[in-house]
């Protein structure tokens, strides 16, 4: 079976919720589902959400990438889906990610400024801009964060609330979600004995 890569852009059909806790709820649900499904299908890639638009990149076996993209096309949280890149590859470049997520960051703001873009609109990206966005996602320092927020706003909010914890709200959320999943798995495993 051959490996391919696929990048697409879409518009979100949902209205973004406030992110004062660091997580846009719709995006968090999409990420959790994507990470689960992609891991099972041995797909890797990354996602960026900004200005109510998605840019997603997938790598994997051709059939699995097409199945996943077919599900995305039927997902009512997306509209105006455009395939930006679809081509064979020799090897995976996102080897450790079932779905990497990049929150709004200085890297993306710099990308937009460098290209004279006022808003994030991947449907209008050139081929070079798509490649640059893929590289930005791949090289991002924002590993497992589920949040879509500006880090400086979060840091300032934590300071004004007197928060001294070393954990961001997104990391706390992730740790709590992982703990809940672990407890559920242990209960399920115990019921099998």
Note the main sheet.
5 strands, mixed
Proportion of beta-strand residues: 15-25%
CATH class, named Alpha Beta
The outline comes out as globular
Residue stretches low in confidence (pLDDT < 50, at least 5 long) are: 143-165
Compute the average pLDDT: 77
Structure annotation, total helices: 6
The number of distinct structural domains comes to 1
CATH fold-level label: Alpha-Beta Plaits
Q: Could you say what the CATH architecture is?
A: 2-Layer Sandwich
Number of strands: 5
Subunit arrangement of the protein? single chain
Strand order of the largest sheet: 4-1-3-2-5
Distance between the termini: 38 Å
Q: Could you give the order of the helices and strands?
A: EHEEHEEHHHH
Considering DSSP H and I runs of 4 or more, what fraction of the residues is helical?
40-55%
Describe it.
This protein has helices spanning 25-41, 62-74, 106-114, 127-139, 151-160, 169-192, and strands at residues 3-12, 44-50, 53-61, 78-88, 100-102. It is an alpha+beta fold and 193 residues long. It has a single domain (3-164), classed as Alpha-Beta Plaits (2-Layer Sandwich). A five-stranded mixed β-sheet has the order 4-1-3-2-5, with helices on both faces. β2 (44-50) and β3 form a beta hairpin. The longest helix has 24 residues, at 169-192. It is globular and about 60 Å long.
